[in-house]
Write a structure and sequence with these properties.
Blueprint: H1 5-30, E1 41-42, E2 58-61, E3 67-74, E4 77-79, E5 82-85, E6 93-100, E7 105-109, E8 115-118, E9 122-129, E10 134-139, E11 152-157
Parallel strand pairs: 3-6, 5-11
Antiparallel strand pairs: 1-9, 2-3, 3-4, 6-9, 7-8, 7-10, 10-11
The structure holds dinuclear copper ion (CUA).
C-alpha cells in the first residue's frame, strides 16, 4: 500500500510522541517513585467526631513536644472555625490531620503548602510550618454542595 510521504511523517511523529509519553510515565514510576497519594489511615465517617484525635479538633502539643492540628470537615464548615498558632509553635512542624464526616471536601490553606483532599473514610495528613506571624484562610476547594463557597476557617499565627 502506498503511503504519502507527508502522511508517513505525521504517523512517525505521532508514534514518537505517544511513545515518549509512555516512557515518561513509566520512568517517573520506576526511577522517581511517583505514586498515588495514600490515606494516612481509615476511619468510619459517622464515627469521626467520636474517634481520637478527631473528638478533640484544634491545635494540640503532644507529650513528645510535637504539634498536631486536628480538623473535621462537614457541609459546610470546618471544626474548629478559628485556630491560633502560638508564637512557640511558629517555625515548628505541625502535623495536620483531617477527616470528613460526609462528602468529599478540599483543604487548602492560603500561603502554605497545604492542599489535600478529604475523602470520607480516609484520614488526610499533611505537615505545615508557619514561619511568619499573620493570618491564613482555610478554604474548601472541592465543590461540596450549595454552600460550598461559605466553607472557610481562619488560622492566626502569633
Ligand atoms: Cu467543602 Cu466545598
Amino acid at each position: 500500500m502506498e503511503v504519502d510521504r507527508y502522511e508517513r511523517i505525521w504517523m512517525t511523529g505521532s508514534a514518537i510522541f505517544v511513545l515518549s509519553a509512555v516512557i515518561a510515565v513509566v520512568s517517573s514510576v520506576v526511577f522517581h517513585t511517583a505514586e498515588l497519594p495514600e490515606p494516612a489511615g481509615r476511619i468510619e465517617p459517622e464515627l469521626v467526631t467520636q474517634t481520637a484525635p478527631f473528638d478533640e479538633p484544634g491545635l494540640h502539643q503532644r507529650d513528645d513536644g510535637s504539634w498536631e492540628l486536628i480538623y473535621v470537615g462537614q457541609v459546610w464548615a470546618w471544626t474548629p472555625q478559628q485556630v491560633t498558632i502560638p508564637a512557640e509553635a511558629r517555625g515548628e512542624e505541625i502535623t495536620i490531620k483531617a477527616a470528613s464526616i460526609d462528602v468529599i471536601h478540599g483543604m487548602k490553606i492560603t500561603d502554605t503548602n497545604v492542599n489535600v483532599m478529604l475523602i470520607p473514610g480516609h484520614v488526610s495528613e499533611v505537615a505545615v510550618t508557619f514561619d511568619e506571624p499573620g493570618s491564613h484562610t482555610l478554604v474548601c476547594h472541592e465543590y461540596c454542595g450549595i454552600q460550598h463557597h461559605l466553607m472557610g476557617a481562619e488560622i492566626v499565627v502569633e
